């Protein structure tokens, strides 16, 4: 009897060892079945990226680990890891500009999901994917003004970028810090492109005089508006509508001639889990993921998904300015350094 029990326990132990060897804790098998652990780098709203990760895991045999940080921090992290990449996917960064400037830094791999293969590089004035497949847009952001509806009426709310220079807004405006925020970098680059350098810097000298704060976070000015700490906050459309959905007295203005920009996703060059990374990028363009983005007041790129935001891709495009991407790439770092020298 003892001999039979010993044989049984030996067999049980052998089965356990075989099972452990054939499958790791992520569910990825030795034969390559399953998607394993997918490392996602993202500066987007943590609760939203968590929801996307959990929804992906319901329908895919893989685990998404979200690493949240600001755009510039994540780019520096990927550069530091260039000889030993740790991330698989980079999603979001205040639009395409940080991705465009990262193209030549060898941290982005080429991958265009099937859903975007037939897209033109530029769709209706908005660059939706990189010509060499280094990124693809998953949603659209509009840069504009959040305002506190208890402190500012709809009629007196600014309608153009020049309106922000009115002396009545002195000490009542917040804008994010271009030295830290991708949102604010887009603001500075777009205004200098539109006005030229001399007039552009004059514009920002006046705008900074009207500001009561320049926080590092791109969403902070909109949150300050919700708290009544500012009358006007410069930020993206979804930031205002998220606050509005929480019951805050916040609304949003799409100014005339403003950046309307795709927010992309990219596969990290040398991703340790390329298969899983590609699957997650495919997922972000699926109807399920697009609906989650829409529920967070983002403008989805899937025309079959209806967003909670009052804006649409068609209405946003009416205000879009033409961004000279080549100029952005050439001048991105120089303009940000010039900002630091002038205003930090």
Give a structural overview.
The longest helix has 21 residues, at 2-22. The chain is α/β, with parallel strands linked by helices and 344 residues long. 41% of the residues lie in helices and 18% in strands. It folds into two domains: 35-140 and 260-317, 3-Layer(aba) Sandwich (D-Maltodextrin-Binding Protein, domain 2), CATH 3.40.190.10; 141-258 and 322-343, Periplasmic binding protein-like II (D-Maltodextrin-Binding Protein, domain 2, 3-Layer(aba) Sandwich). The protein is globular and about 60 Å long. The protein has twelve helices and 13 strands. Helix 5 (182-195) packs across helix 6 and helix 5 (182-195) packs across helix 12 (325-343).
Task: Lay out the secondary structure.
Layout: H1 2-22, E1 36-42, H2 46-59, E2 62-68, H3 71-80, E3 89-91, H4 97-102, E4 108-109, E5 122-123, E6 126-127, E7 136-148, E8 173-174, H5 182-195, H6 197-210, E9 211-213, H7 220-227, E10 232-236, H8 237-245, E11 250-253, E12 260-268, H9 274-284, H10 287-295, E13 299-300, H11 313-317, H12 325-343
Helix pairs in contact: 2-10, 5-6, 5-12
Helix/strand/pairing category:
alpha/beta
CATH superfamily of the largest domain: Periplasmic binding protein-like II
Using the coordinates shown, work out and report the CATH topology of the largest domain.
Answer: D-Maltodextrin-Binding Protein, domain 2
Cα end-to-end separation: 82 Å
């Amino acid at each position: 009897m003892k001999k039979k029990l010993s044989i049984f326990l030996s067999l049980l132990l052998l089965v356990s060892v075989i099972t452990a060897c054939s499958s790791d804790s992520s569910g990825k098998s030795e034969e390559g079945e399953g998607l394993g652990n997918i490392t996602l780098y993202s500066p987007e709203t943590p609760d939203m990226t968590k929801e996307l990760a959990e929804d992906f895991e319901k329908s895919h045999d893989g685990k998404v680990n979200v690493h949240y940080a600001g755009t510039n921090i994540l780019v520096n992290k990927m550069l530091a890891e260039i000889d030993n990449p740790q991330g698989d996917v980079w999603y979001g960064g205040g639009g395409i500009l940080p991705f465009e400037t990262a193209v030549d830094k060898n941290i982005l791999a080429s991958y265009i999901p099937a859903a975007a293969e037939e897209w033109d590089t530029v769709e209706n004035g908005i660059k939706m994917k990189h010509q060499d497949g280094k990124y693809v847009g998953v949603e659209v952001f509009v840069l504009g003004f959040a305002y506190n509806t208890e402190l500012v009426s709809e009629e007196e709310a600014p309608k153009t970028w020049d309106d922000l220079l009115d002396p009545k807004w002195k000490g009542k405006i917040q804008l994010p810090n271009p030295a830290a925020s991708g949102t604010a970098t887009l603001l500075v680059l777009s205004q200098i492109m539109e006005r030229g350098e001399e007039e552009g810097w004059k514009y920002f000298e006046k705008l900074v005089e009207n500001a009561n704060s320049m926080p590092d976070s791109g969403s902070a000015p909109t949150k300050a508006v919700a708290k009544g700490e500012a009358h006007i906050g410069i930020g993206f459309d979804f930031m205002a509508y998220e606050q509005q959905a929480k019951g805050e007295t916040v609304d949003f203005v799409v100014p005339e001639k403003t950046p309307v920009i795709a927010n992309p996703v990219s596969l990290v060059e040398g991703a340790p889990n390329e298969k899983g990374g590609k699957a997650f990028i495919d997922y972000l363009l699926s109807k399920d993921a697009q609906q989650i983005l829409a529920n967070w007041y983002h403008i989805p790129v899937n025309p079959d998904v209806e967003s909670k935001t009052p804006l649409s891709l068609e209405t946003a495009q009416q205000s879009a300015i033409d961004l000279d991407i080549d100029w952005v790439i050439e001048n991105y770092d120089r303009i940000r350094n010039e900002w630091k020298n002038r205003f930090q």
